[in-house]
User: Fold Major sperm protein from Pristionchus fissidentatus.
Amino acid sequence: EGEGSKKEKKEDEKKEGSKKEKKEEGSKKEKKEIEKKDGEKKEGEGEKKEGEGEKKDEKKEEGEKKDEEKKDGDNTKTKATEIKTVEAKKPEGDAKTFAIDPVDVKWDKGKGEKMIKLTNNTADRQAIKMKCSDNALYRITPVFLFVEPGKSIEVKVERLAETVKEDKAVCMVAKCAATDTDPAPLFKSVPVEQQQKFTIPFTVAA
Assistant:
């Protein structure tokens, strides 16, 4: 009987030991699962943070791009302003480059004719347009013409009546190409600020 009770005790101890082991294994498994879940959560949070970081970087890059575009826009505006400023400068008449003789025309009271000599001392071919303040009293021919580099040409001014008053002729000069054949359209295509203007006063003796 004593031996039997000892055996029963040992068996009970074994059962309790196996139960404890099972409990410990279960608790270990639970710990591992909890740790695994915690690890997954941390990874998820890390991915979220990385995603947020990437979004921030993208926003930063977009901001930098906008700043660069703004700078480029500002530079473009500045360049456009500089170009306009250069074009706005009107070329002044220079006797050394384009000469007119005489610089003023004096008339007697009656009718008559005068010649005006235009000399192109520049290295470029020039187109000429002649205008007058009173086309009923004066006639200029030719109105449109070309003057080659280093050459001179004369235009005729005819006075048609005996009216005594002050008038003037205006000589417009525009640079042109060697291939241009008609001077008239050039004064529509070449901006006014790029043309030279010479005024020739007409005076009449009383």
Remarks:
- Confidence is low (pLDDT under 50) at residues 76-95.
